[in-house]
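Researcher: Quick test of sequence recovery. Tokens follow.
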């Protein structure tokens, strides 16, 4: 047997050389594929350009973002998973406890409610009472399309509950009479507030510092706020005796939660867009400390230990290199915002945010991390927005997204 025959049997028949007819058949097919590819790419580029030009907002690059991995003190754990849930409470963003064991929170439908203790005194186990209806007739709104309030930050001072509402601004509620009094309306500063968020009191109760997330978009365009990354947030000072309103900090990157330190000398401000919290001196307004986190920080509250609880939601659904491109090249974000509605923008944003991953970080006055509690699989909490240390040692966990309030069992110190 000849060698050529052996090779043919072993490796198969050799492909016959291309003829002129087969070359002519292959060439049109490749040309068609190339043409389809060019059409698709051109269409995508044209759509992106149209979106970029028609975008109602301008996106900017996030130049000072610091990536914090889930290592060291931030290594994954399950310390935030044991507790119980109080259901039928849509979006309990912030929680305050009264001296009688009553819990107060604001809901997504605009109401402020009181959760009574049970007959045997268990906090959070009693009936739910409506304190407000969620509508303040005749009040100025941050957006004309909004017909009801959205209470966010809540604080209790004596028998008065103070609320920072994303729609109506800053108001108080007399817990005896249930009377609502508007204190600072959205148009009390220039430019007008678009998304009032959280507040903190000085120890004498005479001064309030509160945050305005942005001066560009209302809560209806919350997705725009996150995706543009424009730093137009502010801290505003309100003097209760004189009713004077003063803007004390500008150009914050998504000014969210706020908390005075226990000596009233500094204020902690959470910037969710840049995943960080900053400490500012309240006399000079110079930055003292900064803490970068692996989460988008929301609210911050003082613990029973004189430390501070910072809550946040972890982002891990997008590979780091893709997220870095989106942060540093705003063209893609702005193009998208010109092609979709605000609702879709919010859905797109929450698609990147893993609301099922909750994190609670305890820090001291020097912005040093003491401990980190996590709930990676949403066993107890989702979309974590605030942690309020209760008088029985447990921790109430608020959320902007979910229809329940969670209470964490007393954590080990």
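Model:
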């Amino acid at each position: 047997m000849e060698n050529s025959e052996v090779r043919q049997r072993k490796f198969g028949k050799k492909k016959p050389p291309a003829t002129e007819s087969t070359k002519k058949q292959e060439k049109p097919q490749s040309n068609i594929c190339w043409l389809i590819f060019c059409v698709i790419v051109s269409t995508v580029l044209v759509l992106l350009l149209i979106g970029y030009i028609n975008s109602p907002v301008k996106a900017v690059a996030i130049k000072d973002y610091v990536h914090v991995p889930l290592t060291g003190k931030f290594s994954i754990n399950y310390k935030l998973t044991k507790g119980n849930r109080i259901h039928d409470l849509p979006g309990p963003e912030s929680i305050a406890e009264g001296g009688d064991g009553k819990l107060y929170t604001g809901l997504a439908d605009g109401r402020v409610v009181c959760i009574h203790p049970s007959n045997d005194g268990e906090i959070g186990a009693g009936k739910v009472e409506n304190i407000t209806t969620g509508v303040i007739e005749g009040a100025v709104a941050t957006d004309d399309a909004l017909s009801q309030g959205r209470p966010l930050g809540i604080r209790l001072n004596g028998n008065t509950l103070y609320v920072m509402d994303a729609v109506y601004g800053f108001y108080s509620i007399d817990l005896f009479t249930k009377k609502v009094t508007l204190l600072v309306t959205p148009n009390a500063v220039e430019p007008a507030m678009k998304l009032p968020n959280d507040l903190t009191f000085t120890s004498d109760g005479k001064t309030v510092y509160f945050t305005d997330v942005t001066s560009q978009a209302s809560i209806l365009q919350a997705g725009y706020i996150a995706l543009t990354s424009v730093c137009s947030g502010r801290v505003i000072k309100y003097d209760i005796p004189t009713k004077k309103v003063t803007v004390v900090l500008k150009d914050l990157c998504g000014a969210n939660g706020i908390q005075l330190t226990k000596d009233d000398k500094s204020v902690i401000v959470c910037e969710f867009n840049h995943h960080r919290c900053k400490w500012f001196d309240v006399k000079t307004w110079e930055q003292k400390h900064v803490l970068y986190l692996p989460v988008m920080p929301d609210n911050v509250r003082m613990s029973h230990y004189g430390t501070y609880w910072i809550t946040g939601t972890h982002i891990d659904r997008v590979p780091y290199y893709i997220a870095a491109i989106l942060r540093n090249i705003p063209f893609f974000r702005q193009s998208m915002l010109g092609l979709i509605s605000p609702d879709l923008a919010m859905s797109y944003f929450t698609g990147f945010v893993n609301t099922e991953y909750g994190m609670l970080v305890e820090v001291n006055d020097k912005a040093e991390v003491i401990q980190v509690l996590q709930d990676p699989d949403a066993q107890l909490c989702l979309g974590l927005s605030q942690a309020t240390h209760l008088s029985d040692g447990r921790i109430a966990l608020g959320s902007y997204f979910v229809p329940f309030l969670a209470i964490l069992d007393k954590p080990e110190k």
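The two ends are 86 Å apart (CA to CA).
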